[in-house]
């Protein structure tokens, strides 16, 4: 059995919604999955001003050190102007000790995002690849091989790209 951590940041719950669905898929294969969130860096008064709901009580904040306990990762990154938000990059920055020790070396990682159409989904996911590369992790994109028919169907909005799952 593989232990997989889904690591998320989600102000309004879109990434959390996707993470829960991804977790169901992982569990259906008999593997173990845990969903985590990264620490919030916005002050509470700002969160109140933007009408952000409280974070889900059933999803704990992860520390970089906890990543050692998992075999693989799926990271949910919302899009902020085509980039990962500061909360995600802050978490990535906290993994320096794992980088130094090789603690994440050759562990698989996939990515997913949520944005409006034209919101920069590919650039957001691509921006995370620098961290993935420096950690020596193995990036596992969605690709086209198994989903080309769905992605090429223009009769409806699609929730994916070859880079990873996308909620638009």
From TrEMBL:
GO biological process, alphabetically ordered: cellular response to oxidative stress
GO cellular component, one term: plasma membrane
Top-rank taxon, per record: Eukaryota
Pfam families, sorted: FMN_red
Gene Ontology MF terms in the entry: FMN binding; NAD(P)H dehydrogenase (quinone) activity
Domain Flavodoxin-like: 4-168
Location(s), subcellular: Cell membrane
Protein topology in the membrane: Peripheral membrane protein
Main localization of the protein described in the UniProt heading: membrane
InterPro entries: Flavodoxin/NO_synth, Flavoprotein-like_sf, Flavoprotein_WrbA-like, FMN_Rdtase-like_dom
Function: Flavodoxin-like protein (FLP) that plays a role in cell wall integrity, oxidative stress protection and virulence. FLPs act as NAD(P)H quinone oxidoreductases. Reduces ubiquinone (coenzyme Q), enabling it to serve as an antioxidant in the membrane.
Family in the record: Belongs to the WrbA family.
Name this polypeptide is given: Unnamed protein product
């Amino acid at each position: 059995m593989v232990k997989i951590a889904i690591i998320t940041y989600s102000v309004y719950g879109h990434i959390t919604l996707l993470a829960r669905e991804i977790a169901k898929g992982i569990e259906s294969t008999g593997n173990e999955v845990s969903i985590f969130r990264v620490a919030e860096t916005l002050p509470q008064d700002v969160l109140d001003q933007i009408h952000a709901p409280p974070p889900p009580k059933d999803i704990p904040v992860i520390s970089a050190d906890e990543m050692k306990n998992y075999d693989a990762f799926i990271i949910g990154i919302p899009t902020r102007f085509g980039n990962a938000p500061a909360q995600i990059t802050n978490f990535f920055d906290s993994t320096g000790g794992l980088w130094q020790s090789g603690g994440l070396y050759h562990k698989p990682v996939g990515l997913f995002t949520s944005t409006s159409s034209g919101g920069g989904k590919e650039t957001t996911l691509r921006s995370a690849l620098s961290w993935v590369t420096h950690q020596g992790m193995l990036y596992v994109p969605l690709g086209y091989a198994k989903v080309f028919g769905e992605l090429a169907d223009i009769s409806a909005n699609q929730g994916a790209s070859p880079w990873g799952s996308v909620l638009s």
